[in-house]
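Quick one: structure for this chain?
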Amino acid sequence: MKLFSINSLWTTLRAIIAWPLLVVGLYMLAALIGSLVPANNDWQQPKDGVDIFVETNGVHVSLVLPIAAAGEDLSDLIRPDHLTNRDLYGTHAMIGWGHGRVYRNAQTWDDVKSGDVASAIFGSNYTTLHIYHLINPQPLAHRKLLRVTPKQYRSIMSQIRSTFRLNKNGDSIAHSAYADDNLFYDSNGHYSAINTCNNWTATVLRNAGVRMGIWTPLPGGVMHWF
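Got it. Here's what it folds into:
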Protein backbone atom coordinates (compact mmCIF):
# COMPACT_ATOMS: atom_id res chain seq x y z
CA MET A 1 0.00 0.00 0.00
CA LYS A 2 1.31 3.39 -0.95
CA LEU A 3 1.54 5.34 2.29
CA PHE A 4 2.59 8.76 1.01
CA SER A 5 2.75 10.36 -2.37
CA ILE A 6 5.56 12.74 -3.13
CA ASN A 7 3.07 15.63 -3.02
CA SER A 8 1.66 14.68 0.36
CA LEU A 9 5.16 14.23 1.78
CA TRP A 10 6.17 17.64 0.51
CA THR A 11 3.01 19.19 1.96
CA THR A 12 3.75 17.63 5.33
CA LEU A 13 7.35 18.84 5.30
CA ARG A 14 6.29 22.35 4.37
CA ALA A 15 3.81 22.40 7.25
CA ILE A 16 6.45 21.16 9.69
CA ILE A 17 8.84 23.90 8.58
CA ALA A 18 6.36 26.70 7.97
CA TRP A 19 4.51 26.73 11.29
CA PRO A 20 7.61 27.15 13.47
CA LEU A 21 8.90 29.86 11.13
CA LEU A 22 5.54 31.64 11.34
CA VAL A 23 5.59 31.49 15.13
CA VAL A 24 9.15 32.83 15.25
CA GLY A 25 8.28 35.57 12.79
CA LEU A 26 5.25 36.67 14.80
CA TYR A 27 7.32 36.59 17.99
CA MET A 28 10.01 38.80 16.46
CA LEU A 29 7.38 41.21 15.11
CA ALA A 30 5.68 41.45 18.50
CA ALA A 31 9.06 41.99 20.17
CA LEU A 32 9.86 44.79 17.74
CA ILE A 33 6.54 46.51 18.31
CA GLY A 34 6.74 46.05 22.08
CA SER A 35 10.23 47.50 22.22
CA LEU A 36 9.21 50.60 20.24
CA VAL A 37 6.02 51.45 22.14
CA PRO A 38 7.11 53.32 25.28
CA ALA A 39 5.87 53.18 28.82
CA ASN A 40 6.62 56.24 31.00
CA ASN A 41 7.10 58.30 27.85
CA ASP A 42 7.29 61.60 29.77
CA TRP A 43 10.22 60.41 31.91
CA GLN A 44 13.43 62.43 31.88
CA GLN A 45 16.73 61.79 33.58
CA PRO A 46 17.10 63.98 36.67
CA LYS A 47 19.98 66.44 37.02
CA ASP A 48 20.81 64.95 40.43
CA GLY A 49 20.32 61.41 41.59
CA VAL A 50 21.91 57.96 41.60
CA ASP A 51 24.02 56.87 38.64
CA ILE A 52 23.43 53.32 37.48
CA PHE A 53 24.26 51.49 34.24
CA VAL A 54 22.49 49.23 31.77
CA GLU A 55 24.91 46.72 30.26
CA THR A 56 24.65 44.07 27.56
CA ASN A 57 26.88 41.27 26.34
CA GLY A 58 24.77 40.96 23.20
CA VAL A 59 22.54 38.26 24.69
CA HIS A 60 21.69 39.36 28.24
CA VAL A 61 20.97 42.86 29.51
CA SER A 62 21.88 43.50 33.14
CA LEU A 63 21.69 46.35 35.62
CA VAL A 64 24.85 47.73 37.21
CA LEU A 65 23.97 49.32 40.54
CA PRO A 66 25.78 50.77 43.53
CA ILE A 67 25.50 48.16 46.27
CA ALA A 68 24.76 50.98 48.72
CA ALA A 69 23.20 54.35 47.91
CA ALA A 70 20.23 56.55 48.81
CA GLY A 71 19.68 54.75 52.10
CA GLU A 72 19.63 51.31 50.46
CA ASP A 73 22.22 48.57 50.97
CA LEU A 74 22.27 45.11 49.39
CA SER A 75 25.26 43.89 51.38
CA ASP A 76 23.00 41.75 53.58
CA LEU A 77 22.07 39.72 50.47
CA ILE A 78 25.24 40.16 48.41
CA ARG A 79 27.66 39.57 51.25
CA PRO A 80 31.45 39.90 51.19
CA ASP A 81 31.84 36.45 52.77
CA HIS A 82 30.11 34.88 49.77
CA LEU A 83 33.29 35.55 47.78
CA THR A 84 36.39 33.40 48.14
CA ASN A 85 38.42 36.59 47.71
CA ARG A 86 36.87 39.47 49.63
CA ASP A 87 39.16 41.94 47.88
CA LEU A 88 36.95 41.48 44.82
CA TYR A 89 33.86 42.74 46.64
CA GLY A 90 32.55 45.55 44.49
CA THR A 91 31.32 49.08 44.89
CA HIS A 92 28.74 48.01 42.29
CA ALA A 93 26.97 44.80 41.35
CA MET A 94 26.04 43.81 37.81
CA ILE A 95 22.76 41.98 38.28
CA GLY A 96 21.01 39.83 35.71
CA TRP A 97 18.17 37.33 36.08
CA GLY A 98 17.45 34.34 33.93
CA HIS A 99 16.85 30.65 33.40
CA GLY A 100 18.89 28.67 35.91
CA ARG A 101 20.20 25.86 33.72
CA VAL A 102 21.00 28.06 30.73
CA TYR A 103 22.86 30.54 32.93
CA ARG A 104 24.74 27.93 34.94
CA ASN A 105 25.50 25.41 32.21
CA ALA A 106 26.40 27.77 29.41
CA GLN A 107 29.17 30.30 29.81
CA THR A 108 29.29 30.53 26.01
CA TRP A 109 26.83 29.68 23.24
CA ASP A 110 28.82 26.51 22.52
CA ASP A 111 27.83 25.20 25.97
CA VAL A 112 24.07 25.60 25.43
CA LYS A 113 22.10 22.34 25.61
CA SER A 114 18.94 21.78 23.59
CA GLY A 115 17.01 20.57 26.64
CA ASP A 116 17.86 23.76 28.53
CA VAL A 117 16.75 25.89 25.59
CA ALA A 118 13.43 24.03 25.35
CA SER A 119 12.85 24.52 29.08
CA ALA A 120 13.62 28.21 28.75
CA ILE A 121 11.22 28.67 25.83
CA PHE A 122 8.27 26.82 27.31
CA GLY A 123 8.78 28.06 30.86
CA SER A 124 10.51 27.14 34.09
CA ASN A 125 10.53 28.24 37.72
CA TYR A 126 14.20 27.28 37.94
CA THR A 127 15.66 30.77 37.78
CA THR A 128 18.76 32.48 39.11
CA LEU A 129 20.32 35.86 39.68
CA HIS A 130 23.81 36.22 38.22
CA ILE A 131 25.84 38.86 40.01
CA TYR A 132 29.27 40.23 39.08
CA HIS A 133 31.21 42.48 41.41
CA LEU A 134 32.58 45.65 39.82
CA ILE A 135 34.70 48.41 41.34
CA ASN A 136 33.89 51.96 40.21
CA PRO A 137 32.60 51.00 36.72
CA GLN A 138 32.70 53.57 33.94
CA PRO A 139 30.51 53.99 30.84
CA LEU A 140 31.50 51.84 27.87
CA ALA A 141 30.05 51.15 24.44
CA HIS A 142 28.11 48.22 25.89
CA ARG A 143 27.49 49.86 29.29
CA LYS A 144 25.23 52.91 29.24
CA LEU A 145 25.01 55.42 32.07
CA LEU A 146 21.54 56.08 33.44
CA ARG A 147 20.68 58.54 36.23
CA VAL A 148 17.60 57.91 38.36
CA THR A 149 16.08 59.71 41.31
CA PRO A 150 16.68 58.30 44.80
CA LYS A 151 13.03 57.20 44.86
CA GLN A 152 13.47 55.32 41.58
CA TYR A 153 16.68 53.75 42.81
CA ARG A 154 14.89 52.54 45.94
CA SER A 155 12.15 51.06 43.77
CA ILE A 156 14.76 49.24 41.68
CA MET A 157 16.44 47.92 44.81
CA SER A 158 13.11 46.80 46.29
CA GLN A 159 12.30 44.80 43.15
CA ILE A 160 15.72 43.18 43.15
CA ARG A 161 15.39 42.30 46.84
CA SER A 162 12.09 40.58 46.14
CA THR A 163 13.74 38.49 43.40
CA PHE A 164 16.16 36.79 45.83
CA ARG A 165 14.86 33.46 47.09
CA LEU A 166 15.83 33.15 50.74
CA ASN A 167 16.41 30.12 52.94
CA LYS A 168 14.51 29.45 56.16
CA ASN A 169 16.86 31.77 58.04
CA GLY A 170 16.14 34.64 55.67
CA ASP A 171 19.56 34.49 53.98
CA SER A 172 20.29 34.58 50.27
CA ILE A 173 21.59 31.35 48.71
CA ALA A 174 24.85 31.82 46.82
CA HIS A 175 26.58 29.41 44.41
CA SER A 176 29.91 29.59 42.62
CA ALA A 177 29.86 30.83 39.05
CA TYR A 178 32.43 31.38 36.29
CA ALA A 179 35.14 33.17 38.28
CA ASP A 180 35.91 34.55 41.72
CA ASP A 181 34.21 37.90 41.02
CA ASN A 182 30.74 36.54 40.21
CA LEU A 183 28.13 34.30 41.82
CA PHE A 184 24.74 32.79 41.20
CA TYR A 185 21.92 33.30 43.68
CA ASP A 186 18.68 31.33 43.92
CA SER A 187 15.80 33.50 42.80
CA ASN A 188 12.06 33.82 42.46
CA GLY A 189 10.23 34.20 39.18
CA HIS A 190 9.03 32.22 36.16
CA TYR A 191 11.20 32.32 33.04
CA SER A 192 9.70 31.83 29.57
CA ALA A 193 9.89 33.15 26.04
CA ILE A 194 7.49 35.86 27.21
CA ASN A 195 9.34 36.76 30.41
CA THR A 196 12.99 36.60 29.39
CA CYS A 197 16.11 37.82 31.16
CA ASN A 198 15.98 41.02 29.12
CA ASN A 199 12.33 41.63 29.83
CA TRP A 200 13.05 41.21 33.56
CA THR A 201 15.62 44.00 33.43
CA ALA A 202 13.27 46.22 31.44
CA THR A 203 10.39 45.50 33.82
CA VAL A 204 12.47 46.59 36.82
CA LEU A 205 13.22 49.90 35.10
CA ARG A 206 9.69 50.31 33.80
CA ASN A 207 8.17 49.71 37.23
CA ALA A 208 10.51 52.34 38.65
CA GLY A 209 9.16 54.88 36.16
CA VAL A 210 12.00 54.87 33.62
CA ARG A 211 11.01 55.15 29.95
CA MET A 212 11.14 51.71 28.39
CA GLY A 213 9.35 49.60 25.78
CA ILE A 214 6.20 47.86 26.96
CA TRP A 215 7.63 44.40 26.12
CA THR A 216 11.32 43.85 25.45
CA PRO A 217 12.32 40.17 25.35
CA LEU A 218 15.44 40.85 23.24
CA PRO A 219 18.57 42.82 24.22
CA GLY A 220 18.29 45.37 21.43
CA GLY A 221 14.79 46.25 22.54
CA VAL A 222 16.17 47.38 25.89
CA MET A 223 19.44 48.99 24.86
CA HIS A 224 18.06 51.25 22.15
CA TRP A 225 16.43 53.41 24.84
CA PHE A 226 19.85 54.51 26.14
